[in-house]
Specification:
alpha/beta, 254 residues
């Protein structure tokens, strides 16, 4: 799954944590006169490609928004097929992820999934938990407000039990808790599909992230478009005087 030489630029220039809202599968299929699920299967192939490339580049964390808590409102048949696809991808890919030192974490409300899918998730996480390469977070049945609510409930209980005083609750403590139970702060957030909003994704963690929006539909998102997003980040974040073309070349060729 992960092969080839990593393309690198100046150490520290690339984002440590990239998050992606993978939007446009359904529209991609509709443009081709196909069923929406055809777009979701095409999108799954893009996931494999982008995970491989992120690992090659040495990015530390990649968080993918796979299924939001609002997606349950979609037609029942599509939701059912998405769950089957999720199960299939976990079964097919987890051994390859483990082989290539990728750690997989599923973030979201798991109690919304079937027992068999929850078991598959637990197996995949256990298999890869000691890997120290790319950390791949898949946000499934996830919502940013839900994520914040979990923290509110946790710290409310800590305070009510006398484990923590309210004045001891700080932003740093919250950051640590999010990183431990959910995901850490994001450096670069990419959204495909042409929409310009975060759609209840990682509300706390995106506070200081650079945002990159592209018209490209997710199944068509590739390494070149990923490089464009990274070049945009480097230009904004590093400001070390290179032109955009120079940065793209550095990312591409090392």
């Amino acid at each position: 799954m992960i092969a080839g030489d990593p393309a690198v630029i100046e150490p520290g220039a690339l984002p440590r944590h990239v998050a992606i809202i993978m939007d446009g599968n359904g529209r991609w299929a509709k443009q081709r006169g196909r069923l929406r699920m055809v777009g979701h299967y095409a999108g799954a192939k893009t996931v494999r490609k982008i995970v491989r490339y992120a690992a090659q580049l040495g990015i530390e964390k990649l968080t993918l928004f796979a299924f939001s808590s609002e997606n349950w409102r979609r037609p029942p048949e599509e939701v059912s097929n998405l769950m089957k696809l999720f199960m299939s991808v976990l079964q097919r890919e987890v051994k390859l992820l483990n082989k290539h030192n990728v750690r997989l974490r599923i973030v979201g409300a798991r109690d919304g999934f079937s027992e068999s899918l929850q078991q598959r998730i637990e197996f995949a996480e256990r298999l890869t938990e000691h890997n120290d390469g790319l950390q791949l977070n898949v946000a499934a049945n996830y919502g940013g407000r839900w994520d914040i609510l979990q923290q509110v409930r946790f710290f409310s209980e800590q305070i009510s039990q006398g484990v923590l005083r309210s004045e001891q609750l700080t932003e740093a403590l919250l950051n640590e808790s999010f990183a431990r139970s959910s995901v850490s702060d994001v450096d670069l957030m990419i959204r495909t599909g042409g929409e310009h909003r975060i759609s209840n994704f990682l509300i706390w963690q995106l506070a200081y992230a650079e945002l990159y929006f592209t018209e490209r539909l997710w199944p068509d998102f590739d390494e070149q478009e990923f490089r464009e997003a990274l070049a945009s980040y480097v230009c904004r974040e590093r400001r070390f005087g290179c032109t955009t073309d120079q940065i793209r070349q550095m990312i591409q060729t090392g």
